[in-house]
Every structure is written in C-alpha cells, then in structure tokens.
Specification:
The structure holds two protein chains of two kinds.
Chain A: H1 2-14, H2 17-35, H3 41-54, H4 59-84, H5 95-142, H6 146-158, H7 168-182, E1 185-186, E2 192-193, H8 207-225, H9 244-249, H10 251-266, H11 271-287, H12 298-314, H13 316-322, H14 328-339, H15 348-351, H16 353-383, H17 389-408, H18 411-429, H19 435-458, H20 469-492
Antiparallel strand pairs in A: 1-2
Helix pairs in contact in A: 1-16, 2-4, 2-16, 3-4, 3-14, 4-5, 4-12, 4-14, 4-16, 5-10, 5-12, 5-13, 5-16, 6-19, 6-20, 7-19, 8-17, 8-18, 10-11, 10-12, 11-12, 17-18
Chain B: H1 2-18, E1 29-32, H2 39-53, E2 62-65, H3 72-81, E3 88-93, H4 94-101, E4 113-129, H5 137-146, E5 152-155, H6 162-173, E6 183-186, H7 190-198, E7 204-208, H8 209-218, E8 221-226, E9 251-259, H9 264-279, H10 281-290, E10 293-298, H11 300-319
Parallel strand pairs in B: 1-2, 1-3, 5-6, 5-7
Antiparallel strand pairs in B: 3-9, 4-7, 4-8, 4-9, 4-10
Helix pairs in contact in B: 4-11
Classes of the chains: A mainly alpha, B alpha/beta.
C-alpha cells in the first residue's frame, strides 16, 4: 500500500484551490497552444516558464502549471487536425488521416469527443503506468543500444508502405524526400552537410517549420488557386453529443494504442510522434482492408490520440528516472526541474517523493480537468467551422507566421516555411502523401546517427545490427511490415480507391 | 494574489502569441543559443531568475532560445544586428570557446563580443558502469592504449566537441600516439551517453559532473576521475586525474557574453550583476544541486582566460585533426 500512501501525499500537495486554479488555467492555455499550428507543446511550455518565476510559484505549483499546459497541448493538437486538416503539433499528425475525413463526413463533433476521450484514456493509462512502474521501466532504456534504435526506426519506415496513399511507391518517394531533408545540417561527426554555408541550416530543419508549411501554407495556396471560392476546408456541423457507441467500439483500440504509445514514450528518442504513428499503423493492420482507415474510421481517430497521449506520459519516465528527455517538451520540463534545483535521476523517486508524487497527482488532476473541459468546449471549437474560409485561412496564415517566427526569431524560417508550402502544394497535386515526408524529417536524422554510431562501436561490422534478441525481433517486425501489405494486396485483389 | 495572477495570465497569453515580437520595454533579455533544456538554457534561466530574485535587475529577465549552428546563429546575430544592445546577455560555456577556437562560427572571432564572466564550472568526469572491469583511470586508459578498438567512449557532444577532447587529452598523457584510433560516439546529451554506458553498449562515458550526479547516488555508475585540480566538494571520494598521474584539467564553465559595441559602464554593470549572483546563497544552492563547482572569474580577467583557452583548444584541435 506504499503507492496509495504516496498518492495521498501527492494529492495533499497538489490539491489546493490555488493549484487547482493553476491546473484549469494551464489546461485551457495548453489546449489553445496545442490547437494553433506552429505553437507546439514544447514552445508553449518554454514560453510559460518565466511566468512561473513571476508568480513566484513553488516547485509543485510550477510543475502543476507546466504539466497542465503539456497535457493540454497534447489534447489540443487534435483539434486543428480534425477540423482543418492541419496538425496543431507534430504528434497530432496522424490524427489528420482519419479525423479530417470523419469531420468532412459531417461527424466533426463526434470525432472531437471521441478523440478527446481517447486522449484521456491514453494519458490516464500512461500516468498509471508511470505511478506503478517508472523505476522498473527506466531499465528498458538500458536495453536499447544503437543497433536496437536503428531497427526501431527502420520498423517505422517499413510500415509506411500503405499508410496515407494506397500507392506504396508514392509513400516511398515522400519518405525519401523527408529523409533527404533530414540530411541537412551537422551530421553526427560534426560536419555540416547541404547547408551552402548558411548558418541557419547548420542545425537542420525544424520539423515544425516543415509541418506548418506542408499543411497550413499549402492549404492557403489551394485556396488561392480556387480564387477564394472554395477550399477543401469546410466541414459540416453536427450536434455535439457523446458518441458512447463509438467509444465502446474502440475500447480495445484505445487499450492497444495506449500500450504501444507508452512503450514508444519510454524509449528516449522515440517520442510521441513515433508513438501515435506506431499505434495508428498497428491498428490499421489489425483492422485490415475493410477497416476503412484513411476514410474516417473511428479507430483511426482513437488510435493516434490514445497513442500520442500515452507516449507523452511515457516520455516522463526517462525524464524523471534517467534525466534523459524523450521529446522536446520533456526537455523543457527537465530544464524547469533543474531550475527548481531538482535533479532527475534513478534516485529521484526515493529522494524527492513529494516532487514525484506531486507531479503524478497533478497529471491526474490535469487529465480529469481536460476531459471535463474538452467535451463542453467542443461546441466552441466546432463554431470555428462556421467561420467562412476567407476569414479563417488568413487567420491560420497569421498564426502560422507568428508561431514559426517565435521558434528562433529568424525570418529565414518564414521563407523556409513558404518553401515547404510550395512543396506541399506540388506534392498534393501529384497525389503524393505529405505525412511520410514529415516522418522522414522527424526520424531520419536519428536513424542515421544510430546506424553510424553502431558502425563506430562495431568497427564497421554490419552483423552488429543483429546482435541482440531485441534487434532481431524489430528486424523481423520491420520485414513483415514491409512485405505484408504487398502480399495482402495481391491476395485480396480488390480494386483500390485513391484517397489523398 | 488572484488579481495579480490573472494579470500575469493575460501577459502570458499575449506572450505566447509571439514572445519575441512584443518585447517588454526595458526588461533585459538573455539569449540561450540552443533549444530549451540544455546547459545554455539552464544558464539563462538560472542566472536570470537569481538576478531578479536578489534584486540585481527590477524586471524578470526574458529568455529567448535561438538555436542554430551550435550557438553560431546567436553569435552572428548579436554581432551583426544587436551590437549596441545594452539590455542583452548571452549564455556561453566551454562549448562557445571550443567552437570559436575551431572556427565553427563562420569566421567569427572571440573579439567580436565581450565576455563578462564565468560563475561556475561543471567539472569534466570519466565514468564507467558499476559492473565495469575498469577500477581506476589507469585500467581504462591502459586498455585503450593496448587496443583502441576495445573501448568506445560515449559523450553528449559531437565529434570534435569538448566531451570528445577530454578522453583524448588523457590518452595523450597515457602515451597513445595515434589518437585518431580512439572510438567515440556523440549522443543527444550526457543522459543518453550515460544510459548507453550503463546498458553496456559503450564502455565509458565522458561528460560533466552535473550529468552524472543522479546516477552516482543510485550506484549505477562509478566515476573513475574528475578533471579538476582538486577534488570537488561533496564528491570527495572521486579522485582527480592529476592524482592518478594524468595532468588534465577540463571543465565546462558557465558564463555570459554581451555585445562588443556597448559602453564600458554597461560592461561593468553586467559584471557587477553577475558578481552579485556569484556571491548569492541562491547560486550556491543551485550549484550544489547541479554538480557545479565554484569558479568565479568576472570582468577583464575572464577575457584573458578566454583568450588563453582558445589558443589551447585550437592547438589541441590541430593535433587531433579536427581542424587543419
């Protein structure tokens, strides 16, 4: 009953009117930050850090506020994915695939409530996992060397095959474009590549710039092309109710996705994006051809949201127990902890129980606040759709520019973003999916580093990549993931609908 | 309290819409030339917070993250566009001097800014996993000298970075002639490097004291040496490399620089504020909690220190073939 008493300690710290108010404010602000394209959880949290100092918050209150913003942003990212087909932040990328078609089919309200519940499920699952297993789970990271990470990233790329488009070759082209973009900047040996001597490119291209360009700016170009008359944005409204049937129908999807997402979150370097991606892909392969994935399947909405929120919670495990941030946002939270003179590490759970359990309690509080807040707020969010596109799109453009400018305060990123907008426009004209491009940018650099580091360790022996049971298991999964779609397609011989 | 809260909250909302665009009048700004979460970010936030807490500045210092080019983007930005900004401080560390020495800031040189001071040093350390066969620094170094391929070092900086240099400096003293044979992988920060070492994928980790504190107390790692002239307070059981016969002192100082074009009064003002932070109890606490050792060098003395350091690193970088 150690956990119960610890939890009681946590709640006694985190549960006061003042901290509750902070949680509500944080959740609200986080949801908005998450929903705005270009403002992701990591810069949202970073921008708010000075506020904790100004308010003179103590460690627990600061953590409550920050984790509320963190979880809020994870919830919020889905809103623009579903309503506008523009991911609010990178983990919400996968939610566009089915969320937007579902909204287009007139079920925007259902999609928002269902994904909100899936977010809650995933986050709750992860928080409970963190509570019971964190010190144990931190050991998982010790099992992943460079060879294992390489195989993990490879698995992600191999399952890309039938993802966004039914044309595998087009997905492959898109992934290669992403990988090519990931090559820009310093490599792991400290050599700048493809930068043309431009300092702005030395650290590579920020994936937020790419996401906002490929999705938001490209959308604007399409709108301009149609002379402002129509836009692919514009979904029908429906009554907001709680789709109990859908929630019930996706209960196992949410569970499986939470497990997958949580594991991805625990691994430093994998993170929420990989979590939601793997959750979506595994659900898609379980559902098979008749699952209707990509056309507004409810499972396709629930899976990535449960996955990315579980991963967000999972990423706290290595942050707290190893001091290794698994994502950009946890890196910021880590910085906050350090500023508060809390040093994460294997002994944090025993040395500073009040911090850890205060944090866990505040995560639970934030999660319930978010669920309660999100269901009634859906009505407000959906109202956004009643705004005509000629008002909405300039607004989105403005927010995109401000958000991207706030990343590094450099106009160069803005030009780059417009460049990505053009790329996104061209790709969509050619019916090449843009999601694999983003995944290539997100994971390509990590994959390359893992491979090159593995080669340094082994002295150039490629067999090192198959040297552990975990690595071999991941290789097998990758090969199956790559071959199975082709095989299944031939086997089923069904005509394929082309979707974008 | 509540009213105040909502006011701040409103400011927060405005800030979140475009932080750097609407800079608050007169509030000083600290540029952390990296993404949130790293050492420079820590420097800005911690020093900024303490300056405000002890009343050295009357408004909270706003932290801007300007990642790019390993700090080069911020450096060129300051030199080219904000050369006379008196309200600007920029976080710096050994990495700044390493990159300047290696000419990695697109031809920029150290004399294009003014180094205000350093107020703490993160001592360099060499650690192995608790179950490692290497019991002393000599065990490790002799094994590498005998067969360089038998040991891979993991560190938190890229190849040619300061974490890479530490074992190379030690190995030079140990008599290794071809230091290019030493295996080193640069990972995403010290935490990653230590995780790989505990997992047994790499045999030793080279990093800073602050990166290993949590793992030392948990007993997952064994520190073979600390690269300071004397043992570090609070970590008296870790022997120095010098005691063990390898004359290497290497640490990651934390400090600030400001634009070159500001007046001497501004320079003295910032030097004074930094000195106040150095003397504060809050900073002593922050240092202790984060494994930093005292190292206060503020004002003109620090400029001289930087100049010497850059010459030394440049010499070493040529020896190990990082630059010609």
């Amino acid at each position: 009953m150690d956990i119960m008493s610890n939890l009681a300690l946590g709640f006694s710290i985190a549960l006061s009117p003042y901290t509750l108010m902070l949680a509500v404010a944080g959740c609200f602000l986080g949801t908005i930050i998450g929903a705005l394209p270009g403002l992701g959880p990591s810069n949202g949290v970073a921008i708010l850090i000075p506020i904790t100092f100004t308010l003179g918050l103590d460690a627990t209150s600061a953590l409550v506020l920050m984790t509320s913003v963190y979880y809020g942003a994870m919830y919020g990212g889905r809103i623009s994915s579903i309503l506008l087909n523009i991911p609010g932040d990178e983990p919400a990328l996968m939610t566009t695939l089915d969320g937007y078609p579902m909204a287009k089919a007139g079920r925007a309200g259902d999609a928002l409530v269902l994904s909100g519940f899936a977010s809650f499920y995933g986050a709750l699952f992860a928080t409970i996992g963190l509570m019971f297993l964190a010190p144990l789970l931190s050991r998982v990271a010790y099992q992943f060397g460079q060879a294992e990470y390489f195989a993990l990233y490879l698995l992600a790329f191999c399952t890309l095959g039938g993802m966004a488009s039914n044309n595998q070759a087009k997905s492959a082209i898109a992934a290669c474009i992403g990988l090519g973009i990931a090559m820009i900047g310093y490599d792991s040996r400290g050599m700048p590549r493809l930068t043309g001597g431009n300092l702005h490119l030395f650290d590579g291209i920020d994936f937020l710039v790419a996401i906002v360009g490929l999705f938001a700016i490209a959308e604007v170009f399409f709108f301009i092309e149609s002379h402002g008359k129509k836009s692919s944005i514009g979904v029908k409204l429906d009554k907001v109710r709680i789709p109990w049937k859908d929630i019930y129908a996706t209960r196992w999807t949410m569970f499986r996705s939470s497990v997958v997402g949580f594991i991805a979150g625990i691994l430093p370097g994998a993170g929420a994006s990989l979590g939601s991606f793997l959750a979506y892909m595994s659900e898609k392969s379980i559902a098979g051809k008749d699952g209707g994935f990509g056309k507004g399947a409810i499972k396709g909405v629930a899976a990535p949201e449960a996955g990315n929120n579980a991963a967000a919670g999972g990423a706290l495990v290595p942050m707290l127990t190893l001091g290794v941030p698994g994502s950009g946002t946890t890196a910021v939270l880590l910085a906050l902890l350090m500023t508060l003179n809390i040093t994460p590490g294997p002994t944090l759970f025993t040395d500073r129980p009040e911090v850890v359990w205060g944090l866990i309690a505040s995560l639970l509080i934030a999660n319930f606040v978010l669920l309660l807040m999100n269901v009634p707020m859906v009505k407000i969010f959906v109202k956004v759709l009643m705004v005509p596109p000629w008002i909405l799109l300039p607004g989105v453009t403005m927010v995109s520019f401000v958000g991207i400018y706030s990343l590094s305060g450099s106009y160069f990123d803005l030009l780059l973003m417009v460049g990505f907008g053009v790329l996104g426009y061209v790709l969509r004209k050619l019916d090449i999916p843009t999601v694999p491009v983003i995944l290539g940018i997100l994971l390509g650099g990590h994959m390359e580093d893992a491979l090159r580091n593995a080669m340094v360790i082994s002295g150039g022996d490629f067999m090192y990549l198959f040297s552990s049971p975990i690595a071999i298991g991941l290789w097998i999964a990758a090969i199956v993931g790559f071959v199975a779609p082709m095989f299944l397609r031939r086997f089923l011989k069904k005509p394929q609908a082309v979707t974008d | 309290m509540r009213k105040n809260f909502f006011k701040t909250f409103a400011i927060a909302a405005t800030l979140s819409m475009g932080a750097p665009v609407i800079a608050t009048a007169q509030a000083a700004e600290c540029i952390a030339p990296a993404n949130p979460g790293g050492g420079w970010d820590f420097t800005c936030r911690q020093i900024g917070k303490i300056m405000f807490d002890i009343g050295a500045v009357d408004k909270p210092i706003q932290v801007t993250n300007m990642a790019g080019g390993g700090g080069g983007l911020a450096f060129t930005n300051v030199v080219a566009e904000r050369n006379e900004d008196a309200n600007l401080i920029i976080a710096a560390s050994t990495a700044t001097s390493t990159r300047l020495a290696q000419n990695a800031y697109a031809g920029m040189t150290a004399d294009q800014v003014r180094f205000v001071g350093a107020i703490g040093i993160d001592p360099g350390v060499i650690v192995v996993a608790a179950d490692s066969p290497f019991m002393t620094l000599s065990d490790l170094l002799e094994a590498v000298v005998a067969d360089p391929s038998s040991v891979t070092f993991a560190g938190g900086s890229a190849v040619g970075g300061f974490d890479h240099m530490k074992p190379l400096m030690l190995l030079q003293r140990a008599g290794l002639t071809d230091i290019t044979t030493v295996k080193y992988i640069g990972l995403d920060g010290g935490g990653d490097a230590i995780t790989q070492t505990i997992g047994g994928f790499t045999q030793a980790m080279t990093g800073d004291m602050s990166e290993i504190v949590g793992f030392l107390t948990s007993g997952d790692v064994r520190a073979l040496a600390v690269l300071t002239s004397e043992r570090v307070e609070g970590f008296e059981d870790i022997p120095t490399a010098i005691e063990q016969g390898y004359d290497v002192v290497a640490g990651n100082w934390r400090g600030l620089y400001i634009p070159r074009g500001v007046s001497d009064e501004t320079f003295d003002l910032w030097a004074g504020r930094l000195q106040q932070v150095a003397d504060s109890d809050e900073w002593a606490e922050a240092m202790a909690a984060n494994g930093l050792a005292p190292f206060t060098l503020v004002g003109d003395d620090f400029q001289a220190y930087i100049d010497n350091l850059i010459v030394e690193i440049r010499q070493m970088s040529i020896e190990i073939g990082v630059i010609q």
